[in-house]
Amino acid sequence: MVSHDLESESEKTGVRTPDPEKRAKECGSVGQPEVDFPEGGWRAWLVVLGVWLGQFSTFGYTNAYGVYNDFYVRDYLKDRYTSSQISWIGSTQLFLTLSLGLVSGRGFDTGYFYHLVFGGYVLMIFCMFMVSITQPGQYYQLFLSQGLGVGIAVGISYVPSYGLLAHYFKRRRATAMGIAASGSAIGGAVHPIMLNQLFHGRVGFHAGVRASAGLLAGLLTISFLLLRPRLPFTSRKQGSTLINLRTFLRDPPYVFMVIGTALVLSGLYFPIFFLQLHTITNGLDSNFAFYTLVMLNGASALGRILPNMLATRIGVFNVIVPCVAASAILVYCSLAIKDVAGTIIFALLYGFFSGACNLLPPMIGSLAEKDTEIGARMGICFTFTGFGGLVGTPIAGALLSTSFIWWRPVLFAGLCVTFGALCFTMSRFLASRQKGTQWL
């Protein structure tokens, strides 16, 4: 009767009324209403701003670890610990940032968004104030507060804040994620300037860390107030991490993508963590070396926005594969850097192309069958790939040794990123066969 009335109304008005059953099927399942995404508006863009500030203050701060690494190697932990041992602080931080996505992704999907983000922000501020009261030569204090503490803080807030963008954007999701993720790149450019000036100026290390922690406290407070979930979360009794893991690991494109991400992250952060040290050991002016990370992360901001905008037109895989391949080539090219001009060119190019690896979250999301599993897919992927970030830079640091033999860690990092690019290529090939399109 309802169907007959709809057909009659369509004949009178000349407008074809969509079949509700067909419309529901297109949405993913019969009986579920179609989800409408704002794709913009003041509320959506305020959320993007909130995520941007969060990325600036958390992941962006960890991107400035190269300043800490250089200060620890040449001053704070000098003569007591090797470069490889010191690298474990940054690599543990990166590992926890990514691997805790298994917990935070599931927590986000089941409605614990505010708990995770608030807890992560508070822990981040607390741990940075703890770093400010550490003593020179006390490795364990830095490892606990900066390696473990900050890593956990960023890890439990990273996936939920990113995943929140999926509540407001679908068609323009990659663009929104790129804009939000540029916060970590801008943070990676701004924080090194501030930290180098504080550490090597009149303020000193301890007061400098406290000043930066105070800035983080203000920015993270604003970020938290701007974030607001929009869509209903899944039932907390529905599914489990183990069930999700079994389901996702039967998806070959997803498996190759996870392996590729682990390999890429094993080598991608080596130039970021060691560029400042590499510049100084090449005999270049230390004042110039302090700005190498600024240039790299500044270019990374563009690399996080422009490729994302392109990805909405030609597909995420079609953008990230050549960008990762270019990053691999640049890692090898770092062996040829000997002067100021070469360092600037490398920092700008590597910053741009490595910044495009920010497309990892939308790439993971592109393989999801429904929006409610995006958080779980991101969490599981980052859990496995976090191991790449954990062991990559310490291995590179061990290969570097106290003699600073740069070709060995460069070769290791370059091979990791190269094979990661090959895995992404295979993932794209399999996904295109499944979906019957090359625009992935």
UniProtKB/TrEMBL annotation:
Stretches for region Disordered: 1-32
GO MF terms held by the record: transmembrane transporter activity
UniProt entry tagged with the keyword Lipid metabolism: no
Pfam families linked to this entry: MFS_1
Similarity section: Belongs to the major facilitator superfamily. Monocarboxylate porter (TC 2.A.1.13) family.
Principal subcellular localisation of the protein: membrane
UniProtKB keywords: Membrane, Transmembrane, Transmembrane helix
Entry membrane topology: Multi-pass membrane protein
InterPro entries: MFS, MFS_trans_sf, Proton-linked_MCT
GO CC terms: membrane
Biased composition annotated in UniProt, kind: Basic and acidic residues: 1-26
Location(s) in or outside the cell: Membrane
Segments passing through the bilayer: 44-66, 86-105, 112-133, 139-162, 174-195, 207-227, 254-276, 288-307, 314-337, 343-368, 380-400, 406-431
The name this protein goes by in its record: Major facilitator superfamily domain-containing protein
Organism: Collybia nuda
